[in-house]
């Protein structure tokens, strides 16, 4: 792989992507990184043998720029990059809510932009990354983005109009599962189990259930029904979940996440 790729704003997700790319075959010599603090840049150089540079140097040197800064910081980063990004650079944005049009308007006309929403399981190579092309992005640009993000998990192409929904479902999705595990662990303690044993029971049950969903091809309703015996323990638990409006609460939560993604795109910070 001879193209140079720069990861700008290399936080946790940026570092996960960087390490995944190296495991996937990218040569560290072809990878550039930027960081706000010199100590962070030195840490990345020591850990991955990559080259820390300034944002301007990355824009001038790399063939592909991956922007992993927070949505609120994207405008300032683009202002810094704009004088240095030629129209043949591929720009990949990983910022929630930031549209390809927002980026295209601030860079040289014709610059190809790809929008990607990934999630924190990139840290364990189990990310779900959703990819959409901007006005000037070609099939080759999308394939290159898939190659990069495929190093840390699965990828899926969607129209950009669906990105905010994908952010709500998979971008924020791991947090919902962590929240559920936290609540179930507390329930296990209430039922008399030590915290560590409750945790192990729930985590392995979650891994097993997710594997069944992925590998069986069965609808989740069918898999749930297989566990739900007449007048048994499971149906009594599900009745309580329905009585407390858990399904409606989940739908409302995802709508709220989608709406916040839209607000971020409009520049609203609070």
* SSE order: EHEHEHEHEHEEHEHHHHHH
Computed CA radius of gyration, to the nearest angstrom = 21 Å
C-alpha geometry: elongated
Residue runs with pLDDT of under 50 for 5 or more positions? none
**How many separate helices?**
12
Largest sheet: 8 strands, mixed
Helix percent reads 40-55%
Structural class: alpha/beta
Q: Mean pLDDT, rounded to whole units?
A: 94
The end-to-end distance, rounded to whole angstroms, is 42 Å
Number of strands: 8
Please state how the strands of the largest beta sheet are arranged side by side.
Answer: 3-2-1-4-5-6-7-8
Beta content: 5-15%
Question: In words, what does this structure look like?
Answer:
- The chain has 270 residues and is α/β, with parallel strands linked by helices.
- The chain has helices spanning 12-23, 38-48, 55-61, 74-81, 100-104, 139-149, 163-171, 173-190, 195-216, 220-227, 233-243, 246-265; strands at residues 5-8, 31-34, 51-52, 64-67, 90-93, 113-117, 127-133, 153-157.
- β7, α6 and β8 form a beta-alpha-beta unit.
- α7 crosses α12 (246-265) and α8 packs across α9 (195-216).
- The two termini are 42 Å apart.
- 34% of the residues are buried.
Task: List descriptors.
270 residues, alpha/beta, 8-stranded mixed beta sheet, 12 helices, 8 strands, 13% strand, elongated
Task: Explain briefly what this protein structure is.
This protein is an alpha/beta fold and 270 residues long. It is 53% helix and 13% strand. An eight-stranded mixed beta sheet has the order 3-2-1-4-5-6-7-8, with helices on both faces.
